[in-house]
């Protein structure tokens, strides 16, 4: 008990450091990297399941706004086969079924397998469902757990992964994530890095990535956000439709949040409202994404979902030499909305390193005001870059010197984060570095909710608890 209290007090001391103190840390940790090369095609992590037309690349994502539906996707390679999912709440007893549909696409001369997607809706909250895809001896069975009812005090643990790729470092990140106890992945864009290949190998590397992540993505939802490696605008092969592979393979429940594009949307899960943005789609005033976000912020109800989290690929605050200032145009458009709506955290990827900001804003700046520097702002989100999943491009090891005032902690290592929401007021946050073969909690703190622990709400909370 005594050690538990000591741990809690340490957390609180660290919290006040996180929120109030300036003077950032540049970690000096360096470890020998495993080579940033993709795992060979014949490695067991890419193994094709045995049996004629066996479903492969099985993955799930949330299928509605509030977490009572799941979209299940998979690929069959020999023939279309069935798009039906059988499911139920008892293992091996599938008393319900849903019918999906399948599609396929070509990319240069590559022809994809039959990509199935099937919506399971009307599910019960907080329930374990078993499901079966495929038929006969080639069928495969998995399970997933639905989230708790939408409730301000619902506890839930999210994992955060970005820029994953398919190297040995990617495998290390995935393996560490899978023992974290997190219940859903918030994925920050740049999935397979298949676009680093040419011609037909691009499609093949999307397939290997689908088989690689299945170990996690078939049993818990991955919430998708698109990055630059999903664009695949490749005129040299006459491939001119942006996001073609991504959109065919990784559906999102965008219609449920009244979005007009799978690239930006929102979901509510447990006590969190999660907004997914597209760094590579128009976002300036009056564009579809801008208009949608303006309306989505109006739908946020912090009394029901206190935790407001935004996902995007390009960070708005970054002090790495790589991709420096790339988020500036979106910052100029959206930052004032993030501050006004008291967003808790903005997660981004893109930069292959880890970085966390203080609560700062730069919304007073305009081209004539002259106030160029970000200032401490208690209403502002934390900006956290977790672009360190471990892909074949390697780490972004050069940070700008001196460390800017807005940067609280930065380290060029591979890893992933977890956000463990405890109730409406508190969450535990960890960034976990991949050390060789083990997971090391490197940046950890307790997070106060921006809505419920603002000064005006403290009285309300006191009244609620009494
Ligand atoms: Fe990227």
- Level of helix content? 10-25%
- Share of β-strand residues: 25-35%
Largest sheet: 8 strands, mixed
Distance between the termini: 26 Å
Give the cofactors and ligands: fe (ii) ion
Q: Helix tally? A: 7
Shape: globular
Q: Average pLDDT value? A: 92
The strand count comes to 26
Instruction: Please state the structural category.
Output: alpha+beta
Strand order of the largest sheet: 1-23-19-22-18-17-16-15
Rg over CA atoms, rounded to whole Å, is 22 Å
Note poorly predicted spans: 1-21
Could you explain how this protein is built, in words?
With about 475 residues, this protein is an alpha+beta fold. Helices cover about 20% and strands about 25% of the residues. The strands form six sheets. It has an eight-stranded mixed sheet, with helices on one face. A six-stranded mixed sheet has the order 14-13-12-24-25-26. Strand 7 (about 105) and strand 8 form a beta hairpin. The radius of gyration is 22 Å and the shape is globular. The structure holds fe (ii) ion. Fe (ii) ion (FE2) binds near residues 228, 229 and 350. Fe (ii) ion binds near residues 229, 313 and 350.
